[in-house]
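Message: A physicist's question: would you kindly supply an amino acid chain plus fold tokens?
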Amino acid sequence: MMLPTSVSNANASFSWPNPIIDASAADPQDNSPQMVWDKLIGQHDQIFLVLCGHEHGQVLRTDDNKFGHDVYQVLADYQDRGQTAKDAGVKSAYPVGIGDGWLRLMTFDLGGATPVIQVRTYSTHYKKHSTESPSYAQWYKAQEKPKLSDEEFLRQDEFRIELSDFRARFGKPAAVTAR
């Protein structure tokens, strides 16, 4: 809950937030990720893809919704990366988290018999995809996923999602006519 007030409040300014605060005595009661799944995502068959962040690293997870269909959950959060600071000579026990310009690129091809999402990771700073940088795993793997091999780590940032049950759920794409 956020209640904007001024620095030097008149007594009358307290009359409007008091009932709001009293009515919300149990707050905050934020939902856990599992509760978001149970109360929202898993309940709706038209949700087939969820993009997530604010948890460092990268993950692809697939779970069945209550209808038995796949829901792909793609996490990408590179904000804690600081190789560019190291490249610039910054000395720190912990990398300066500026993300190094890494972002996810997702290409959707819904025209084939089995629709596909191609996922790649690109740095606007290094001007390369993760798989094009020979140092990529060396820079980030130890901090993010030390138990993976270099190849496994790279596969976390470049992969293909085949939407195998997409047609059963949503049918074929509508025909497009030229104008």
